[in-house]
Amino acid sequence: MKQLKAIRTALDYVPQYLSFQQRYMPFVGAQVAVRVDGDLIYNEAFGYADLASETPLTVDHLFRIASHSKTFTGVACLQLVEQGKLRLDDSAGAYVPELEKSPLGKVTVRELLAHGSGMIRDGEDSTFWSLDRAFPDREELLKTIHKHGQVLAPNEHFKYSNIGYSLLGLIIEAASGVSYRDYVTTNIVDRLGLANTGPDLDLERIDDYAKGYTSRAHGPDRIEIEHIDTFAESSATGFYSTASELSSYFQAHLDGDDRLLNDGSKRRMRQVQWTVTDDSSYGLGLSITKDNGRTYYGHSGGYPGHITMSKLDLERKLSISVLTNSNDGPAAVLCAAILQMIDLALSEKTKTEPRKPKEIDRFEGRFATLWGIIDVANLGGRLYMMAPTLQNPAAEAVELDVVSDTALKVVGDKGFGGYHEPMRYTFRKDGQVKQIRGAGGSIMVPADVFKLPEKVLRPTR
Which residues contact 34 (CB under 8 A, 6 or more apart)? Predict the structure, then answer.
């Protein structure tokens, strides 16, 4: 099965998984978009943009994407390097006169981009993250850098710093001669034709934003968190976008696409500067992660009421963005789960051969027992039994083989769950599944007809 066709089978299952997770976790809302080689092949929204009014979330609602802003700042810096207006080894003090005599004026653009400057993360008073006060302006930012900025020596240890990236915004302004917001809007947002993306809160479009909410850690009731301008920290955390446009932006990071940067600059952004864990490293404005044996470039984001995640697979030319609107939004979990479904659809380490849809469609569906819910789904032309209750169903998926028009056989189980036993289907006259006598002898019925009794009584002999 060709790659794109296989990917589409995985994405055909994603709405079933996400709609189930939205009520099971539960999360407030999620936008999900997937692109392959420039084409938008998946774009859906689940849950709510506004809990009080029960307004459904749409694919057009705007999300604050927080630290994704750092990737835009990285692109801006590399553009200015290409233009000869900036060098990665230039010192911050060369562009920000207020820091010229400060020890932190000696940190380089490269060190700031790589989180190697040793600079404080958010300052001594970062209560703006809780909306207790406004985000810093330029004057307060520079005061913070002077008084509290240096925590470690440059290049001593990876140290993530929003203050460092805010300083990069000032450097971009000095090197370009225009404000940070104007520069990135003209040279990144407008160049890509992104109508729903911008460098910070746009109050004229406030009704277009998905509302953000608190975590359920504080109790079952979520509280709305109003949107806030990040002022001098736009270059670290200010941007807004949609999943569709954010996934489009990451397509411009593919080699051969010269709309933003030449390939040499893109490789430079992707080059590992710091190894953080076995599966996580950082480049110049890009987070680099490994998952299920694959390497992804992208970023996460955490803003009051919004948690977001984007990843780019260079080999598959695939970008994905998942945007959620609460402090406990499972963006990373959902993103990883969808990518592993795609991995499974494209896997060559299987026990069965791909089949045509007409050979396996009749077996698909969601089925229920007293013990829970299982899905039988087509991923890459093969049937898998998965539990939508799991955060990552593909990780525990069980491969099934077609043995007749009315039976499957468990072939992918590790041995605990009915390995090599049959799943016998009974169909109604209209071709719909009536029940399945599952591996292990249990009976499953379609989930939409399954009803729990008021009480499960013990049987008598």
Answer: 7, 11, 40, 41, 42, 43, 247, 318, 319, 320, 338
